[in-house]
Here is the input.
Amino acid sequence: MHGNKHLFIPGPTNVPEQVRQAMNIPMEDMRAPDFGAFVSDLLDDMKKAYRLENGRVFIFPSSGTGAWESAITNTLSEGDSVLMSRFGQFSLLWVDMCERLGLNVDLCEVEWGKGVPVEEYAAKLAADKDHKIKAVFATHNETATGVSSDIAGVRAALDAANHPAMLFVDGVSSIGSIEFEMEKWGVDLAVSGSQKGFMLPAGLGFLGVSEKALAANASNNQKMNRCYFSFEDMIALNDTGYFPYTPATQLLRGLRVSLDMMLDAGMENIWSRHTFLAEGVRKAVDAWDGCELVARGPEWASDTVSAIYAPEGVDARDVIGTAYNKYQTSLGTGLNKLMGKAFRIGHLGSLNPVMLCGAISAAEMALRDSGAKIKAGSGVAAAQEHYRSK
Amino acid sequence: MHGNKHLFIPGPTNVPEQVRQAMNIPMEDMRAPDFGAFVSDLLDDMKKAYRLENGRVFIFPSSGTGAWESAITNTLSEGDSVLMSRFGQFSLLWVDMCERLGLNVDLCEVEWGKGVPVEEYAAKLAADKDHKIKAVFATHNETATGVSSDIAGVRAALDAANHPAMLFVDGVSSIGSIEFEMEKWGVDLAVSGSQKGFMLPAGLGFLGVSEKALAANASNNQKMNRCYFSFEDMIALNDTGYFPYTPATQLLRGLRVSLDMMLDAGMENIWSRHTFLAEGVRKAVDAWDGCELVARGPEWASDTVSAIYAPEGVDARDVIGTAYNKYQTSLGTGLNKLMGKAFRIGHLGSLNPVMLCGAISAAEMALRDSGAKIKAGSGVAAAQEHYRSK
Amino acid sequence: MHGNKHLFIPGPTNVPEQVRQAMNIPMEDMRAPDFGAFVSDLLDDMKKAYRLENGRVFIFPSSGTGAWESAITNTLSEGDSVLMSRFGQFSLLWVDMCERLGLNVDLCEVEWGKGVPVEEYAAKLAADKDHKIKAVFATHNETATGVSSDIAGVRAALDAANHPAMLFVDGVSSIGSIEFEMEKWGVDLAVSGSQKGFMLPAGLGFLGVSEKALAANASNNQKMNRCYFSFEDMIALNDTGYFPYTPATQLLRGLRVSLDMMLDAGMENIWSRHTFLAEGVRKAVDAWDGCELVARGPEWASDTVSAIYAPEGVDARDVIGTAYNKYQTSLGTGLNKLMGKAFRIGHLGSLNPVMLCGAISAAEMALRDSGAKIKAGSGVAAAQEHYRSK
Amino acid sequence: MHGNKHLFIPGPTNVPEQVRQAMNIPMEDMRAPDFGAFVSDLLDDMKKAYRLENGRVFIFPSSGTGAWESAITNTLSEGDSVLMSRFGQFSLLWVDMCERLGLNVDLCEVEWGKGVPVEEYAAKLAADKDHKIKAVFATHNETATGVSSDIAGVRAALDAANHPAMLFVDGVSSIGSIEFEMEKWGVDLAVSGSQKGFMLPAGLGFLGVSEKALAANASNNQKMNRCYFSFEDMIALNDTGYFPYTPATQLLRGLRVSLDMMLDAGMENIWSRHTFLAEGVRKAVDAWDGCELVARGPEWASDTVSAIYAPEGVDARDVIGTAYNKYQTSLGTGLNKLMGKAFRIGHLGSLNPVMLCGAISAAEMALRDSGAKIKAGSGVAAAQEHYRSK
Here is the structure.
């Protein structure tokens, strides 16, 4: 093995050099007098990345899965009804968690390749005159299928029904990469993690919480048991600039730099950059005979990850294995029912066109090695022409 | 500020250069074909550090607090009776967690400066003929007071009473530093974290689990709700060398190197090194007029952290603040009822005599600046003589 | 600017992560008792990379230019006649140095695109019955034109003429990358540097010196003035494992790791890897309409760098500027008479096919942006098919 | 070995974390379009650290020894008379270089422990009516003996004699640490290196050159042979922001940060900080029975390094060896005639009082281990009281 390994999974993403430098540090005292101001600024700036005016963002030493659990256990009670939809491995796991935590899930099954069924949600919300539904769950970006959903549409459905349910969003692979407006869209709980758009190693779970969700936490006497992920402990200490237990300071120092990079760039510019980069990958997929996106139409295609069906007769696992073993390139695997059928190219975070030309080349070579009849260079040629257009 | 900052809190501890190098890496795919073998070896070697033959060690992206929660929620049920003792901020927080999670705590209050009341435990266990007590909790090393407890003694008490309760140990600031024998002592659940004896940044919670505790998890149908910290998910994936959610790979790569360093050194040698280093600090404290250990006698004094009462009339917060602001040295603060009365010197992890002579000098200068009538250089002179003795 | 910058100049080359880790260190004492053994091993292993049984390799804190100067000033005298050839910017600069240092240069001018004129050398050596020529200079790899020369052929010419002149080789961009056999080829002085095949940052100049050259140094009483680059001082201290002045210890620690990587891989495998990678770039150039190698035929084409004529009417500076500014990719510039006409792709050091597919894509996009009528993706398609073939 | 190694030699010095971060980078193109502006700013700021309004500072990939050679070979001719003094290993080596380069050295031998004999210089300059002396050499800080000389005094002597000789200063271990005013003092050539006050790894030689020295270079037709270290090549390229050969870019990126730190702190503050830190070490030496500074009086004592005579009967090599092997602490060795008699503590660069308390403790323990009858803790107690005084 020589040269760089190439990482094109939908998270962990590539860490910018500045962030890597910022994490190359000795340890520090998380109770130092000047640590509190550092944390307070960081929490404020996290709200900017979340586009949240009011409310809070919590930072847990955890993965995004932990932030999911925090969102649920702090605001809902066993037996509460929630509206969910399932169209990929991560929305599936979220449903699984809700069921295990004792929620009563009203589940919309959706074809994998499409996203949150806004109209079905609207109908159910309109029908729920008694407001039994306490929360509506929406996976903003289904990482397994490369599908983005219309969160603003879900909000509109709630508003149209004049429904008081909280809106939970899984933004793990969307926040910091594609358009996300927590305050404007009336999102109440928004989960993310360090290893995607925030361009850090895995290890931090983020949770944006609206004023309404904070009130739900404060007024609910039947909350589920939780300590590590409890809002109360975090609020009490965060208000002083500290944490209820030892925070992952190395990652926080990295987050300081990645947030600076993000806010300096401007969130809108980050979003449009992701669209531009993603479009090049999609042009490549279009150029590959027999390949197509798992996303069932451009309105669903995600700007952070493309899940791609291998051509008929080609095992996507061979493509992924060949890319890794022969070309030192990590592509995303096909999860659950996509296993063997699809592979994924992550195109979020710290990336640029030449990196993606490398990724597309690796996929192209691995596809041909695995028996696909695509034309050599066809994808990268299409991507190049797109990337040149700017 | 010029030169190194000096870190002498009882965790996070100083990270060895080799570990720091190992974390200076690009991100990687946690589903890569060769990642599983890496994880399997790591989990095996964690058992060696825990001195565990059977059972498992889990690695959570969390702090030690998360591992506490995992231990409880996976093996106990709401309303279960547990035997606990409280003699410092961390044993206090553990009691608090158990109460919040709905356990019925039989609590022994102990003077701060002493540790687990083995005889009181023994009496209670002997009296518990019906075996209502499902678990006995022991804080091995109370980080707030610099007190170590006799875990083997607790085991002996359980055995003497022929009591089937599980033995829970908080080893956050002991495992990897001072003598700890999970298998030999019959510990069922042993909590630790990355940022102490394991010489890593904070961000990983460790949980050693005995066969008996695994069986308790498997057979208990009234376990508390938990997903993130559930044993089942972790076992299912760990058995394949992977994790149920994105692991903190950067820290795992660092852990690989710190574990190698630890196992190469030999756990017994690590323990005796900690005793040797701690003894120098204690000699310094003895030499300081008016200072004394919070630990009420040598049998309680911890080899990983010394909590030290400032002399009468000296506010320990001044000592800590002066050390930090004037001497770039982080000492541990006095927590809870020790606030203002005591400061702490952490002496665990990647340390050596000259580093501790610096720490003692910083404390000495800060003490004198804060009004203590100790003799300049008295502590470091005593420590030097001890360190020369080897 | 987002994502990685891409470096495809013929040095400095990309530094492997292991080497980067090894340089992430605190400073150390270059007179420490254990430093000498470290240096001695390093010097021994440098000889293995040079394929030198006898003689020595010196490591100077300098660039390769300094090592050039050391070679000359330690073994030759003002007025000495030397046989040289000029066919690119670096052979040109070497001639310039020799003239400035007072040597009497017998110069063969060669068309840029070809290399050392072995037959002309042979004729001159045969004609030099009085052995006025003290040294024969050969640029093994002319970095400016992407041309490799036949050093074994030069040795054969010397042997055929039974000529005692020393053989000087500029191996800056060849040693550690393409076949180089110092002992077998009877090379007397061989210059290299850290930032090419040795995969380190710039800052170290290497000089391999044969027994014969050492003897020339020892016996020559008219050597030129030099201190910093003098053999005597270096020999005296190197023999004890130290240096006559402060060495660049950080780079030496990096060199330790890069040498380990090189010797573990095996020099022959490194050479064949460079051929394989270079061939992909050449296939791409072949596929680009109107582009061609500066090298005048496959026998001259270098496996470490390709100098490529831009198509008629395209300014190569536009290609390079566009690659850098629009595609974050550093290509090598056209030096001297190649300025505006040619650009270069470095393909030596720590590289792999997917990195080169990125480089070729960047060049391809920049060429089209600059008006070249090449077909999008044509080069990368050709390269891919080559890289798949292994 | 556990914990940090401690480095208290007079260079390489401890590298600040910010500088270390800045060197943790991928390689870059030293011919990139934006590299020139980076270099130009760096060269400008180097002049600020040198306190030079006019003239230039050159940065060579070399040690300070190379910069010595550059100063001489660019401005003097073989046979030129120079006035020098010798009072330690480094002034000795400088004399040696001058003699080897063919200069006619008028040498003042001075007792080791004193510095440049200003009055003797004054007398010789006054006597040199024909201005045969082309240059006056002064070692500002003799690193081997811990002695600083009066450069302003040498300038005054030149001025008093109205003598046109150039003033050469070895500022390797003074510039960036103790008061140095190149322009104000009329220094013509001032040598330094990266690994001392500039707080970088070794690998860069610095040379400040006055307008007068530049003119001497331009007008002198008998300059010595040199290419690598020639002013002309460096000037031609530096004027465009580039270098005549591959620069050590990693170190230049580190230098950017260390210069920022230095200029932000203010040179005067750096100088007074060094005095403050040095004074603590001297207090310790005073407190050690039987030890004394090599410097023959406070007027000679250097603020960057203290050379300390071990007590009668104690071999200083034992002290140094014990410090290194038992206490992981590098002290400076006794060079040349000081070998076995003295050891050195470097106190320049990125340091603070607690680090020096560690150094003093290490020396104290090693002294006692080696048989010195000093009182344990005596030195560190004296140092502490000094450091508290601020």
